[in-house]
Amino acid sequence: MRLRFSRIADYAVRAALEIARVDGDHLVTRRALAEATDAPHAVLAQALAPLVRAELLVAQAGPRGGYRL
Q: Which of 37, 61, 57 shows the shortest CA–CA distance to 48?
């Protein structure tokens, strides 16, 4: 059985895996995630928004902001 994901879903999964690799209390910036996943910043924001709404990720805004599980 072969599963197919949209490009945005693929970016979301790869970004979540990158966030999981980091120590739990540290925030991962969108820039760092974009570099690690080769995803455009704007598309990555779209990909991570549903994960934040579902409370799988925590997002913190601002210059020292980022994402964590």
A: 57
